[in-house]
Design goal:
Blueprint lengths: L2 E8 L3 H12 L8 E8 L6 H11 L3 E5 L5 H11 L4 E6 L2 E3 L3 H6 L9 E8 L31 E3 L8 E4 H7 L17 H11 L4 E11 L8 H19 L11 H22 L3 H30 L16
Parallel strand pairs: 1-2, 1-4, 2-3, 6-9
Antiparallel strand pairs: 4-8, 5-9, 6-8, 7-9
Length: about 325
């Protein structure tokens, strides 16, 4: 018998949470599948607890979990520890899933051939794209809004999956560890990448990823995220996240490695990106490079900050860490 656990983390979204829960409750699965839904409240200050408790009375397979430590990775890890399923599926509190989503996402993992599966994340029907934003092609910024689409063909994937639509076999966590708690959203912070970092870690371990386009979810995008300021702020913090993910190398003859990295980033990344931002006429392409510039600022700022932080408090999280240097 296949046993599934859906983990849905939430923080201060009680007004829209019920819509996400209703969509998961309507999932269509074979009768032979045993499944549960864990709603992990990451220390919300609104009426989230009441919403989930009321919902779970009508839907007993839903269970409320409270995680006091602020940060999405703490909430994700709490859900993983509480899960009873052999396959763990993840989605978010601002997402509506299609009725066939859960089985479409989980069924490729039943045989054990694949360690992870991921599907499409599209926009809700109320989404209106601003004129300065590209969502297709080389200069797409759809990832900022959580959109993910690798096309219509199912198969092996080399792309890291997003946390709004992903599933893993339980043994993947036993082998690779949990989500990194120094990454991921915490309160109003836009630090991110806990989901893609873990997905890349899974690939590095040798587990195979399956892309399933029929597993579809729809992401609601609030108006405040459709501003240039939000995109620039996101990229700045994403740059910080990328450095945290990849900067894990020793000093050079006692000299902090970031002292070598900053000039490299300025000359080889920041300067050419600034030229493209300042001298490109196309509106969407111009904003794309401006976002990359802000992301590079985040990298430059985070390098010495992270070096100082690790000097004062050596990392001892016990989690598997990435070691390869990556940039945008």
């Amino acid at each position: 018998m296949t046993k599934l656990t859906v983990i849905l983390c939430t923080y201060n979204r009680c007004q829209i949470l019920n819509q996400a829960l209703e969509s998961v409750a309507a999932s269509q699965l074979p009768e032979s599948v045993e499944w549960e839904v864990l709603v992990v409240d990451n220390n919300s200050t609104d009426e989230t607890r009441d919403v989930v408790n009321t919902f779970s009375k009508a839907h007993p397979r839903f269970r409320y979990i409270f995680e006091r430590k602020q940060g999405k990775s703490y909430a994700l890890n709490a859900g993983i520890r509480e899960a009873s399923g052999d396959i763990l599926a993840f989605t978010d509190d601002d997402i509506v899933v299609a009725p066939t989503w859960l089985w479409g996402l989980a069924s490729p993992l039943a045989s054990g051939e694949w360690g992870s599966s991921g599907g499409r994340i599209g926009a809700s029907n109320t989404f209106q794209c601003p004129p300065w934003l590209a969502l297709q092609g080389k200069y797409s910024l759809g990832s900022v809004l959580g959109f993910f689409d690798l096309g219509d063909k199912a198969g092996s994937s080399q792309e890291a999956f997003y946390g709004g639509n992903v599933a893993y076999r339980r043994e993947v966590f036993e082998k690779c560890g949990l989500y990194r708690t120094d990454l991921g959203r915490s309160g109003t912070s836009l630090l991110s990448s806990e989901d893609t970092e873990f997905s890349r870690r899974v690939m590095t371990s040798g587990a195979r990823l399956w892309y399933e386009p029929s597993a579809v979810v729809y992401h609601a995008v609030p108006k405040e995220r459709l501003s240039k300021g939000h995109f620039l702020n996101y990229f700045y913090h994403h740059g910080r996240s990328r450095i945290r993910e990849s900067a894990n190398r020793a000093n050079v003859r006692g000299i902090p490695r970031w002292l070598f990295s900053v000039p490299y980033i300025v000359l080889n990344l920041l300067a050419p990106r600034m030229r493209k931002w300042l001298f490109t006429l196309d509106l969407k392409r111009r904003f794309y490079f401006k976002c990359l510039v802000w992301g590079t600022f985040g990298e430059i700022v985070e390098l010495p900050r992270l070096g100082s932080e690790r000097k004062q408090s050596p990392r001892s999280t016990g989690q598997v860490m990435a070691t390869r240097q990556t940039h945008f």
